[in-house]
Amino acid sequence: MASNGVLLLFTFIHLSIGHAAFVQLEVRAENVGKYGQQSLLECVYIHSQEAEGGKLIWVNWKKEGVEEALLSFHKGSTTAESGYSFAEPSWNTTNRNVSLLITSTSVKDQGEYTCDVMTDSGAGIKNIRLTVTAKYNKPAIKFDPQTSTLMCDSDSGYPEGQLRWFDEFGTEWTKSSQMEAKKTESGLFNLSSKLTLMDGSTFSSYTCKVFNVSGGKEEEATYTVQEPEKTGRAQGNKVDGTTKVVAPLVVIGSLIIGLLLLMLLLYKRRSQLVRRFSIRPLIMGDHQPVDPCDSHVEQGEDQSCPDSLA
Ligand SMILES: *[C@@H]1O[C@H](CO)[C@@H](O)[C@H](O)[C@H]1NC(C)=O
Ligand SMILES: *[C@@H]1O[C@H](CO)[C@@H](O)[C@H](O)[C@H]1NC(C)=O
Ligand SMILES: *[C@@H]1O[C@H](CO)[C@@H](O)[C@H](O)[C@H]1NC(C)=O
Ligand SMILES: *[C@@H]1O[C@H](CO)[C@@H](O)[C@H](O)[C@H]1NC(C)=O
Predict the structure, then answer these.
(1) Burial class (CB in 10 A: 0-12, 13-18, 19+), 111
(2) pTM of the prediction?
(3) Which of 126, 141, 160, 236 could in theory staple to 223 by disulfide, Cβ–Cβ 3.0 to 4.6 A?
């Protein structure tokens, strides 16, 4: 019994020394994960030469503020929360690459992690930080003619970014705008910004750019103000609306007038024919003195006309 106790004590001392000397963890302390994509938190342990061949006892991956281990290997079996696994596809105890793979990175995955490894020849523990980013969508700009306001929306980014306005000459108008950042259920941000156009200070185009938290431009969109200016455009729309109603009326009106004219013409012709038959001699008599004159005019003998009349 006594020898057993000595053996235990000896093992304990051996492990304590090993802790410091025989196992080293190689990690990258700072990592950036992309939202919705895989994230790799690297952790590889190496033995010193004296400890070569040491057997793995456990691996524990924990996250700050989370009680349960996300991934652990202990007493020959691996347990993992869903969405977490060893990065090596068919990891076993002979593989010293115990890196953690996060299948689909979300905003809540951001934080401090610890990779904790114990072997029979030593132990090691290291901190790893994961920062999550999500690129903002291309902005969409809408114009509200009622309030003469441009509205720019850019969604689903992380961390909180900024929307900025520029005119076609590159002058910034952000100070005249109001921005709002809404946090979505998934922890991402939806940005929206309003820029009210003042009368007489309207440029022909406005660009809305989305910048990430570190000031890098991600996306942009340009809105071209319709010519003539906004108020004119609203009136133009009204005219268009009126035209739509008036146009058919004009067409129908012209048709009716045309029809009436045609009827009048036909009526006149008919009455002329009737008159020709009934009072033809009288008309002929009326016209006779003029007719030769006309024929002479056509021939260019202006003078002969009054002569013949006389
Ligand atoms: C550990 O394994 C992962 C997944 O296979 C790989 O991407 C990474 O490069 C490995 N790290 C080292 C140091 O071998
Ligand atoms: C561990 O994996 C390696 C390579 O994937 C394989 O060659 C080896 O046989 C495996 N060992 C055990 C104990 O499963
Ligand atoms: C944020 O934007 C996304 C994509 O446009 C949309 O589906 C979601 O409803 C928005 N959430 C909020 C809180 O505005
Ligand atoms: C911000 O954008 C710049 C340029 O696109 C990029 O290099 C940087 O990594 C981004 N930073 C973040 C926190 O997304």
Answers:
(1) middle
(2) 0.69
(3) 141
